[in-house]
Design goal:
16 strands; seven-stranded parallel sheet; alpha/beta; binds NADPH dihydro-nicotinamide-adenine-dinucleotide phosphate; three-stranded antiparallel sheet; 32% helix; globular
Length: 377
């Protein structure tokens, strides 16, 4: 039946019974049946496990991509990584055993390349997204037309599962162009492939994020809303874990998930947390939106590296709203990690050299106002 995963335990093959007992304990074989009735053999055995599934991850070269590619590849799934830029995909090659990662060149406007990327897969993840328009792709091209082409390819080859990564606040009637195009993208995906699983992550933090790294970076932080926007930051690794669980649980098909962290922060509060962690004060400049929007448009169209965009200025004025009907981490049995518990890990590179050899201050030390000492010499 669609939506039901069957797990059948196979008798241990003769070949295995000749191996020493210690190996048999770890070789665990299962056969699962996908929605379309395809049997998937899985064998657990460390880095050389056989995950059985073939997964395509669009947008794998971005920040979140590595956390799902790595999880799939190390459990032995074959991961197809459609890419645009040779250098952007290199780090993914070592995410799994030799041959587990298959790279395919793809263009979002080339339907043939999209179809080639999906047609051998059991699940397709679409992580493609952009915060700002570029000279070749505006937000509609990426979030709507791109989604449409991918969903059509998924439907054409009757792929078992399609997981579409959208965004928090995605809403086709939003005043922000980013949220509006993301919301419309969700609708298109569901129209074309009704069993689409929609994932709406909150702003994510992690090693390569654009949240903590921007606040801790040396350049002034320019905003238009005095950092008043509120949201529930989520750990990228938790989102990767949730995406992997969706592969193994067919009841997640046709559901919408809001993936957010345990605590609501304003951007200002996170900025103070970052300053405290790196022992530096980063300057924050506020430019009103009536000046910032045309400036952002100008910068975005004339500078060739990512700066800001009108879409990003608009988003500063919209707090994160959680859809009460959507499922969450709880439904996937995942306890999301608190931002505060990870800031030291992700920000230690920004600390002054004076502090590099010491752990963060404990609560007791903070109360006693104990000062850090340089203990090397
Ligand atoms: P990144 O910006 O780091 O990565 C985006 C990915 O999309 C990259 O692999 C990029 O490819 C690809 N991409 C963008 N435009 C195109 C295009 N025109 N054609 C082909 N590929 C394209 O995003 P994240 O990993 O941070 O986020 C993943 C998803 O989650 C995105 O959809 C994002 O909108 C969404 N999201 C992210 C949040 C966050 O805090 N990071 C919060 C909420 C939602 P390439 O490397 O070739 O440029």
């Amino acid at each position: 039946r669609p939506g039901v995963t069957l797990a059948v335990r196979l008798p241990t093959p003769n070949r295995i019974s000749t191996l020493p007992k210690v190996c048999r304990r770890y070789l665990n074989e299962d056969v699962r049946i996908t929605r379309t009735g395809k049997p998937i053999l899985t064998v657990s055995g460390g880095r050389s496990s056989l995950g059985g599934y073939t997964a395509t991850v669009f947008g794998a070269t971005g920040f979140l991509g590595r956390y799902i590619v790595n999880r799939l590849a190390r459990s032995g799934c074959t991961v197809v990584v459609p890419f645009r830029e040779e250098m952007a995909k290199r780090h993914l090659k070592v995410a799994g055993d030799l041959g587990r990662i298959v790279f395919l060149e793809m263009d979002l406007r080339n339907t043939q390349s999209i179809e080639e990327s999906v047609r051998h897969s059991d699940i397709v993840y679409n992580l493609i997204g952009r915060d700002y328009p570029t000279k070749n792709f505006d937000l509609e091209d990426v979030h709507m037309e791109g989604t449409e082409r991918i969903a059509e390819a998924v439907a054409k080859y009757d792929i078992d599962r399609y997981v579409h990564v959208s965004s928090y606040n995605a809403d086709s009637s939003s005043s922000s162009e980013f949220y509006r195009t993301k919301g419309r993208g969700e609708e298109l995906a569901r129209e074309i492939y009704p069993e689409t699983t929609i994932v709406r992550p909150a702003p994510m933090f992690g090693h390569e994020d654009r949240l903590l790294n921007t606040l801790a970076g040396v350049s002034n932080v320019i905003t238009s809303n005095y950092m008043q926007e509120r949201f529930w930051p989520v750990h990228a690794i938790d989102v990767g874990m949730a995406l992997e669980k969706m592969l193994h649980d067919d009841t997640t098909a046709a559901e919408t998930y809001e993936l957010y962290g345990p605590t609501n922060y304003s951007m200002k509060e996170i900025s103070e947390l970052v300053d405290g962690e790196i022992h530096k004060h980063r300057r924050h400049v506020n430019i009103p939106p009536r000046v910032m929007k045309p400036l952002a448009k100008y910068l975005n169209s004339y500078l060739w590296w990512p700066t800001t965009s009108t879409a990003q200025v608009e988003r500063e004025f919209i707090d994160q709203v959680i859809d009460p009907k959507a499922k969450t981490f709880k439904d996937l049995d995942i306890e999301p990690i608190e931002l505060k518990s990870m800031t030291y890990e992700y920000l230690k590179g920004y600390r002054s050299a004076q502090y590099y050899d010491l752990p963060p201050m404990t609560e007791r030390e903070k109360k006693e106002e104990k000062k850090y000492l340089h203990v090397i010499d």
